[in-house]
Design a protein that fits this description.
Chain lengths: 288, 283
């Protein structure tokens, strides 16, 4: 305990500044890519080069991007860097947040609300990221109503299953998960946009009040854009035609890997109660 | 007893309007949070005060000292408070009035209690140890100024001669910061500045916006900047500039309008540059 305190003391500035830095790089930059990728399930509908029709183009675009990411070299290294950064930012963030005593009741200024919200969105963000990564990346499907397992080969359909709590309809538990995603994403986007604004003060980039205002406008615009991307992701996966999506994903799988390998993947990654025609077909084909 | 929120008090327009409509010859209530000494329990007492033209809170407290009888006719002791200049330049009379910290000597009853029977609430600042009633011990605030060496080093064994000239623009910049009267309003309002009675922790607990701004004031002084490295090194340690959480309450609470948040950012920049210099050049 004393050693820890000593370590924190000796490297106080370094730790503080690393805390600030990790929030932007890699975490914030990753958030930007993550949300633009995910929202492609909606905006992908305008991607005329996608191999599908209408809204389903979004599914194809999103699947294409997920496949691209999953073929990135050093993906695991990127993931580990992110996990370590998020862990570091979270632990120090909680320690720092607990050092203050919010007083918005007496000093109800907007900036003071920002300060208080930054702490609350941090707490919410930690819980949400843990649930998000545990269920969709580490496969803790017992935490997912309906037990969906996310698969990068069936990115949109399995995500829709996980958000809706079932492969066929939106269950009450699914509404809960969707709301959690909505609140989680909203919190994290606010936390990032506001953190980006205060980081400029912390590092001493924006000194004068006008500079802080100008940078505030930039951060607000970025935050609004990301908020839109985050919300459209959640909405996108909720309105996706799940079975059609599954069909597109299987077709893309076959195009990419050929029939035999695709069948294998479908068996390995197939959802337990997935009941689409395509899937059953694929299953029987494999059994044959 | 919980304190109520008095958001309206923060608007100058509300106070100005009250001054216009204040009734002459009225009686107002002063509700005061009292405490007999360090570690003793706090209690509330109310006093009726007949308002005289232009009366401020200190004058009302003087009236109570001469007639220490509460509103329910109980005899009590005079209320203890601190004051000195009576013109808002020493900071000694700072207390929490209707929920916000400010100087009581410049606080007009007309602005806060314009009607018959209106109540003004007085409390000691919550971030410092109470000596008695409304009188607090601001030692930690001054300790923070010694931590950041908020002075110009001119002591020596021989005549150092005239100092370097300062250009008028920099003088203008620094003048605002030099108006700090160490009152503690910025600390009372700051969510990152928390009550700390244990003196041994004052070297690692948050120095507060006033000290950061004073460090900037003296870092930018032509002779004062000799101590700039010392000041910045101190502000890199626990309780330094990094402990600010950017709530920006301080700048709104400062009665002298000192650009505290700009000072915090300016010191943030100086610390960043010094840290890089130290990393790449060695000590
Ligand atoms: S900006 Fe910093 S010093 Fe000022 S009130 Fe906020 S946390 Fe306190
Ligand atoms: S900076 Fe302002 S509020 Fe803080 S001690 Fe100085 S005069 Fe008072
Ligand atoms: S007595 Fe000096 S500021 Fe009020």
């Amino acid at each position: 305990m004393r050693d820890n305190a000593g370590l924190l003391h000796r490297h106080h500035l370094l730790l503080r500044r690393l805390h600030s830095l990790t929030g932007i790089l890699p975490i914030g930059v990753f958030l930007i890519f993550h949300l633009t990728t995910n929202s492609s399930v909606l905006w992908g509908a305008i991607n005329t080069r996608a191999d599908a029709e209408g809204l389903a183009r979004g599914v194809a675009t999103f699947q294409h991007e997920v496949a691209w990411i999953n073929n990135m070299p050093g993906l695991l290294l990127i993931e580990i860097t992110l996990w370590v950064s998020i862990g570091f930012h979270s632990v120090l963030g909680v320690v720092y947040a607990l050092s203050g005593k919010p007083n918005v009741r007496l000093y109800a200024y907007r900036d003071n609300w920002r300060y208080t919200m930054q702490r609350w969105t941090g707490y919410i963000g930690i819980l949400f990221i843990f649930y998000h990564v545990a269920t969709l990346r580490w496969g803790w499907s017992f935490l997912v109503p309906g037990g969906a397992q996310w698969s990068h080969h069936f990115a949109a359909s399995t995500l829709a299953d996980a958000l809706r709590g079932s492969t066929t309809s939106i269950t009450p538990a699914g509404v809960g998960v969707s709301l959690l995603y909505f609140v989680g994403v909203t919190s994290l986007v606010f936390h990032f946009a506001n953190g980006l604004w205060t980081a400029a003060i912390t590092w001493g980039l924006t000194v004068s009040e006008q500079a802080q205002k100008r940078w505030g406008a930039v951060c607000t615009a970025l935050g609004a854009g990301l908020m839109l991307a985050g919300w459209s992701s959640v909405i996108g996966f909720l309105i996706t035609d799940r079975d059609q999506a599954r069909g597109i994903e299987e077709r893309m799988l076959i195009e990419h890997y050929g029939e035999d390998r695709a069948d294998q993947i479908i068996t390995e990654h197939g959802h337990a109660d997935a009941d689409t025609d395509h899937n059953e077909q694929a299953m029987t084909e494999t059994q044959d | 007893m919980p304190t109520t929120a008095y958001a309206h008090d923060s608007t100058a327009a509300w106070r100005r309007a009250n001054r216009e409509r204040a009734l002459p010859g009225r009686t107002v209530i002063l509700k005061i949070k009292r405490c007999d000494g360090p570690g003793k329990p706090a209690r509330w007492e109310s006093f009726k005060v007949p308002v005289e033209p232009g009366m401020n809170v200190i004058a009302a407290l003087k009236h109570i000292a001469a007639n220490p009888v509460t509103a329910d006719a109980t005899h009590t002791t005079p209320v203890v408070y601190d004051a000195n200049c009576l013109e808002e330049v020493c900071g000694a009379c700072t207390m929490v009035i209707n929920g916000h910290a400010r100087q009581s000597c410049s606080c007009l009853l007309d602005e806060y209690a314009p009607r018959e029977g209106d109540t003004i609430t007085l409390e000691p600042m919550s971030k410092f140890p109470v000596v008695r009633d409304l009188w607090v011990d601001r030692s930690r605030l001054f300790h923070a100024l010694t931590r950041v060496k908020a002075w110009v080093p001119i002591d020596g064994t021989y005549d150092l001669g005239a100092g370097p000239k300062e250009d008028p623009a920099s003088q203008q910049d620094r003048y605002g910061m030099s108006e700090c009267m160490s009152c503690g309003c910025c600390l009372e309002a700051c969510p990152q500045y928390t009550h700390e009675d244990d003196e041994s922790k004052w070297d690692t607990s948050f120095v507060g916006a006033h000290a950061i701004s004073q460090a900037r004031l003296f870092n930018e002084h032509p002779t004062g900047k000799e101590l700039k490295p010392d000041r910045l090194d101190e502000l890199m340690t626990p309780g330094g500039v990094t402990d600010c959480g950017n709530a920006q309450n301080c700048v709104k609470a400062c009665p002298k309008g000192i650009p505290l948040t700009e000072s915090i950012a300016a010191i943030g920049r100086q610390v960043t540059l010094r840290a890089f210099a130290r990393f790449f050049q060695g000590k």
